Amino acid sequence: MTTSGKRGFLPPFLQLRGVHMASREQVVQAEVASGAKAFKPYVAPGSAMAELTVKAILTGALMGVLFGAATVYLALKAGLTVSASIPVAVIAISLGRKLLRTTILENNIIQTAGSAGESIAAGVVFTLPGFLFLSVDPATGTSIGAGYFSYFTLFALALVGGLLGVLMMIPLRRSLIVKEHGVLRYPEGTACASVLIAGDRGGDFARTAFQGVGIALGYAILQKVFHVVAEAPAFVTRQANKWLPNATVNGEITPEYLGVGYIIGPRIAGVLVAGGVLAWLGLIPLLAVLVPADVLAAQLPKVGYQPSAFGWDPAAHTFANLPRAVYYAYIRQIGAGAVAAGGFITLTKTFPTIWSSLRDGIRSIGDKAAAASISRTDRDLSFVTVIAGSLGLVVLLAALPQVPGSSIFQKVLIALLVIVFGFIFVTVSSRIVGIIGSSSNPISGMTIATLMATAMVFVSVGWTGRLFEPMALVVGGMVCIAAANAGATSQDLKTGYLVGATPRNQQIALFVGAIASAIVIGVTVKVLDMPTGELARQGVQHMIGSDKFPAPQATLMATLIKGLLSLNLDWHFVLVGAFLAVTMELCGVSSLNFAVGAYLPLSTTLPIFVGGAVKGLVDRIAASKGEPAEEGELGGGSLFATGLVAGGALTGVIVALLQVNDTVDAFIQKTLNMGPRITALIGAGGYQLLGVGFFAAMALVLFRTARKPQAKQL
User: In degrees rounded to 5, what are phi and psi of residue 637?
Assistant: First the structure.
């Protein structure tokens, strides 16, 4: 056997210095490098077009405030968020044409500053309301963290976490956005750039993108307002099925997921859905058979869920929705462990590239001549700003009285944990959203991993029990905010890279947006938490945690913290997930992509896979006929797909804003909702098949658009 044959027999993960792995890495690096050199942004680097103007900054900050407030409401009520970058870009184009007279670079600044509100709000609401759900203080009869649930604490943590997310993404921009331009697609960032360019260019280019927007808007209105299209058709095998009981195949058949799948392509979409297939068609049916229902009912409260939410019948010892009960009781813990391990593996593999960017940043500190020669489109805020800003935030954390901790040592340790775990998961988050987009970013999985690591540190120094629960929540909350904002920041920087923006100006706009959003997010949370007069007279102190604002994600985080610091958590599920990620890496499969697919519901990854399959079919037909491949982001299919993402996201935000008003929400649900009437006419199965038919028709339109000759698109 030859030497190369022996090396080829090794698992891919171990071929770090083997001939095959080395040659593959060299090819990939050469392709990425050549792609970065050949790439030309829409606005030339030598252009002196208006960009960071007062009107752009103020408009973007206002958009951040509005979308941040809407996200707070939606996340508290349903545990969901909607990406704001594309809707803000559409608004910027509309205002820019008729009122503000802005350039494309000013419109990009508007969407950059405006997107910070949504991401920071998501990080805040998913974690910090957990102060209300920590262990009860026997002296007061309330949560031991209730005293920290004040406006100033929410503002301080939102501000510091948001700024950290931006600061830590600055040195990563060159490695993730520039050097991996052909590898990490950043679906929302690419879609946002296409919307901005289409609005600026007009003609056939704009027509293709806005046709996608129009079809997505119409489809989403039929789905979310009139409910003509089922939102998540599902097929679940019965518990008594002797072949594969409790197996689930379902999908949130939305235009944005179809568009995201087309943008990321069949390979990544396939790995993502593979994780979901293992979870929902393998692990869940297996655990549903092996685990007694009573044991499952006892497990759910440990991870923050009540068995009644899944139709638990104590008398009959059965669940109405057993697959989802198993998913929340066990699979999410396995998935969180897989995401943490996959993120660490990915961080290790990409560390040379990250270190190269950091090294270049350090060298640039004293090289003023080199800094002056950098082109406009490659000019970041200085590395000194990153270091000084990060150190300043550490000092601020240690000095703020709003941060839990009875000694300076405790506060400094909190700050150090935030910096260390923040950098790790900012990197992981920024890479994940480059693959699957911000809307599917498993930020809760990264927060769970942070809480677990924090608890291990606390236990190692003897910090156990309820007194340390607020401190652990601060670490998890700030890392969650930083990672969420870093994911949105990387999408914005990708948009800027494509349109030809100045990174430095975008980073300044992100700081402004983060500050403006942090001021308003705390106010919004506290206003929504205020009980009505009648409820206050009944002794209700907080609306958050009630049926109106259940805050499911924050409840989960608080429950995990209590279990971790009382040494009462099922670590074996987490470690199973970690070794699942290692197994995928040994097989040569991207462990992080697979882990994200295992953590997310199959209803998310399956429609993304359909979009990827359409892209694969288009490419295969083109190759079989000797036709040229689609021209990246400017091809007909890519333009139409970005329009689907934009239209779906825009409708989601509009519907979320309408639902803030209870009267309007009731009108939509009772008067406009045609779902019950259609179901009565054709049955529940027929209603779901009708939705699948609509989704298939939209996929067919995407396919036909992508197959049109390129010359007709531009």
Answer: -65, -40
pLDDT of residue 26: 40
Please give the structure tokens belonging to residue 49.
Answer: 């077009």
Burial class (CB in 10 A: 0-12, 13-18, 19+), 26: exposed
Tokens of 83: 């990406």
Contact, 343 vs 424, CB < 8 A?
Answer: yes
How does DSSP classify residue 544? B
Report if residue 559 sits inside a domain: yes
Q: Is 422 exposed, middle or buried (0-12, 13-18, 19+ CB in 10 A)?
A: buried
Question: Does residue 12 fall inside a structural domain?
Answer: no
Torsion angle, alpha carbons of 602, 606, 612, 614, to 10: 180
Tell me the mean pLDDT in the region 641-646. 78
C-alpha of 479 from chain center: 14
What is the four-CA torsion angle of 502, 507, 511, 514, rounded to 10 degrees?
100
pLDDT tens for residues 663-703?
887 888 888 999 999 999 999 999 999 999 999 999 999 99
Token digits of residue 325: 């009960």
Cα separation, 170 vs 89, whole angstroms? 22
Distance of CA 233 to the CA centre of its chain: 23
Q: How many domains does the chain have?
A: 1
pLDDT at 56: 92
Q: pLDDT tens, 511-558?
A: 999 999 899 888 888 888 887 666 677 777 887 877 667 776 787 788
Query: 478 is in which domain, residue-wise?
Result: 47-712
**Contacts of 353 by beta carbon, 8 Å cutoff, 6+ apart:** 175, 179, 180
* Over residues 288-312, mean pLDDT: 89
Flag whether 370 is in a domain.
yes
Query: Does residue 117 contact residue 523 with C-beta atoms inside 8 Å?
Result: no
What's residue 593's pLDDT? 84
For the beta carbon of residue 274, count every other beta carbon within 10 angstroms: 18
Helix, coil or strand: residue 313: strand
Q: Decide if 233 is inside a domain.
A: yes
State the average pLDDT for the chain: 82
CB atoms within 10 A of CB 252: 20
CA dist., res. 293 & res. 81, Å (int): 32
Q: Which amino acid is at 279?
A: A
For 130-182, give the DSSP string. Answer: GGGGSPBPTTTSSBTTGGG-SHHHHHHHHHHHHHHHHHHHTTTHIIIIITTTT
SS3 248: strand
pTM as predicted: 0.71
Angle at 317 between CA 313 and CA 321, to 5 degrees: 60
Instruction: Pick 255 or 22 by higher pLDDT.
Output: 255
Q: Which residues of 474-487 are buried (b: 16+ CB within 10 A; e: fewer)?
A: bbbbbbbbbbbbbb
Class of residue 685 by CB neighbours under 10 A (exposed 0-12, middle 13-18, buried 19+): exposed
Average pLDDT estimate for 310-334: 92
